[in-house]
Amino acid sequence: MMICLILVFLYMIAEAVGGWMANSLALLADAGHMLSDVAALGLSLFAMWFAGRPANARRTYGYHRAEILVALVNGAALVAISILILIEAIERFRRPPEVHGAILMSIAIGGLVVNLVSLWLLHAGRGESLNVRGAWLHVLTDALGSVGAISAGVLVWAWKWNWADPAISILISALVVYSSWNLLKESVAVLMESAPRGVDVDRVRDAMLGVSGVVAVHDLHVWSITSGLDALSAHVVAADGATYPELLAKIRGVLHEGFGIDHQTIQIEPGGFVEHRGAI
Q: Does 160 lie in the same domain as 136?
């Protein structure tokens, strides 16, 4: 991620200068996305360091959620940048300025190479962390922006279609918003402690009820602390004569093997047990 940050920062400056020289909104839009990449990669690196801090008496889960907060910020920033580009593109449609297609193409090709290298570097971690996926999405949208800028450069250079520059910018903005939506949705789901993606709570309950010695399951909650770290808490009513340590071991094994949930808090209760809620 540090290598990506350096590459993107250096080429962001080149694209900004090139966009100004070519008078190209598509290239400036791509430079704007690269600026958001620099911020996103920097925030992601900070979040990874911050999330590694140990838990304490005040933050009993540690600082894992820092990565989710950064993923949410990255998604929101992508949408905001896209809206700004869309507004500027609509204005340019009214009065299409002259664009230097050759400069636009040459700089956009270099930007695409940088983005492809960065995507390759980040690819391995994108499935394990929403934070890394957010950074990967930033770079992916930049790669799309570079492809769009190259296309606009070809159309302007070959046929003098200056309107292609804002048109491509609108297309890039729409793609960015579409790709950011899932990131925003998943980040909010983690912060709202929804059930993790791919975990069916009813199936979890049925699997627990299928363990010999379990009579009932209630107060079942499954949530994500951060990407790849799911947690579960539940109250289990045991059958008469059940051995609690053995029963607990069976339940833990079912949850680990069937759902990959290892952070478990299970309260085993005897039949007829009445919990006094709200008691001190």
A: yes
